[in-house]
Design goal:
The protein is mainly alpha-helical. It has one domain. 58% of the residues lie in helices and 11% in strands. It comes from Spirosoma endophyticum. This is DUF4406 domain-containing protein.
Length: 71
């Protein structure tokens, strides 16, 4: 099963890189647990970070990117 994961990425971080990194680490740990159960996790943040479009999060273009990825 393909599972789209969402979680706090920037929320509550005040844009502090270390807090954002901790949020991402926590989400990736959860993704690993899902993977080990035989499913395919997808973190929307992976698609944005991978494409170099981190500003898409700030500019409100993140959700359309995620929807397009899943089509």
């Amino acid at each position: 099963m393909l599972i789209l994961m969402a979680g706090p990425y920037r929320s509550g971080t005040n844009d502090a890189a270390d807090l954002i990194a901790q949020n991402m680490h926590d989400m990736e740990e959860a993704a690993l647990a899902i993977y080990r159960k035989g499913h395919t996790p997808i973190c929307g943040e992976w698609t944005v970070r991978r494409s170099g479009c981190v500003t898409a999060i700030k500019n409100g273009r993140f959700n359309p990117t995620r929807r397009r990825y899943l089509q």
